[in-house]
Amino acid sequence: MPVTVLLVDDEPLVRAGLRAVLEAQPDIEVVGEAADGAAVIPLVRQLRPDVVAMDVRMPLLDGIEATRAVLRTVSDPPKILVVTTFENDEYVYEALRAGADGFLLKRARPAEIVHAVRLVAEGESLLFPASVRQLAAEYGDTSGNPAARAAMERAALTEREAEVLRLMARGLSNAEIAARLTVGTETVKSHVSAVLAKLGARDRTQAVIAAYESGFVAPG
To answer: Which residues form the Response regulatory domain (predicted)?
Structure first.
């Protein structure tokens, strides 16, 4: 089955460009478009896309609030890939904190766009880990704010789970973590699932944000 994508951007040319790039791939299908975040929830419920590629800045409802709305109201929500003009943007970090699974630059090359959609859909690696780390260092409360630190303490990660989280924050995929720890990929998947469950994180991006915000992992 192809990865299905919903495009959300107030610029028709951006949507057309993304559609052309993605639909050139045999394993990706664009199932719909919207010009504002306010239209996302009914389209997600109707089309059930695997990935929503969503502009972070839109006139009625921006990508941050649209992300929150989707995750709050849609059962089994899609992966959300924020599309942005500027990489080092506080809006991008806020979107990640709100629950977005990654971000993509509008000036990205076609191969990078396709890679981002596939990687976010698979959910087994962190998209642009160095950029996420830089955003956390600049805009996050990475000194270990009390709420995030308390949540990390309540999670009570085992030594191996903590090690896996640190490797996730460095951007290693499940296969790369397995090679590093000399264990099977299925074992790593079990550890990742346990980390997500204990942290109450829906995916590895949210787990890594929690690790930075709690001071468990330093973004520098």
So the answer is: 4-121
Decide if 208 contacts 168 (C-beta within 8 A): yes
Residue pLDDT, tens place only, 10-37: 999 999 999 999 999 999 999 999 999 9
Rounded to whole angstroms, the Cα distance separating 153 from 21 reads 44
Round to whole Å and give the CA distance between 123 and 79.
Answer: 9
Average of per-residue pLDDT across 195-217: 92
d(CA 183, CA 12): 47
Sign of CA dihedral 218, 203, 122, 69: negative
Are residues 64 and 91 in contact, defined by beta-carbon separation less than 8 angstroms?
A: yes
How many Å apart are CA 145 and CA 119, to the nearest integer? 30
The residue whose two tokens read 């394993």 is: 27
In this prediction, residue 140 carries a pLDDT of 77
Per DSSP, the residues of the chain read: -PEEEEEE-S-HHHHHHHHHHHHTSTTEEEEEEESSGGGHHHHHHHH--SEEEEES--SSS-HHHHHHHHHHH-SSPPEEEEEES-SS-HHHHHHHHHT--EEEETT--HHHHHHHHHHHHH-SS-SSHHHHHHHHHHHS-TTT-HHHHHHHHHH---HHHHHHHHHHHTT--HHHHHHHHTS-HHHHHHHHHHHHHHHT-SSHHHHHHHHHHTTSS---
